[in-house]
């Protein structure tokens, strides 16, 4: 940061820290013990839609990397597009394989970043559910290096459970780097993996 940046009050944005994803298994234990939420075994990486040969090569690399995992059943990662035009690479594991799912998400993010698609990466999420059917996602904001909880209300189109989200924010404060700016807690309606 230069002197002019300091004088004008500009700051450098936080650099992504993909290793923050490895805190999710610990956070999952806290979620289960204190709130009854367990992993669904699904997670996803969201990015601005990219086309072209370079992206196809990166997608093949992700498949090859995740195909090497012998413990996986089903396709390693699926590509889908949401109604807002964003692309999602979705990984599915059994609910007890959260560390493996986190490794998958880290590998996808790292491969995208390593192939020059870091600016297109938006977020990653891991899905959770409780015994009553409430859904919760822990969303990692790539450009901020922070997490936030997203809890859509069951049976309501595009309404969220703000009270539950704030409760999870307080609950996870010691496990995850939680995003403090609530205006950055973007809804991820219809996200695959949730």
UniProtKB/TrEMBL annotation:
Domain of life: Bacteria
Pfam families referenced in this protein's UniProt entry, alphabetically: PspAB (PF22742)
InterPro entries found in the cross-reference section: PspAB-like (IPR054383)
Protein name per Swiss-Prot or TrEMBL: Uncharacterized protein
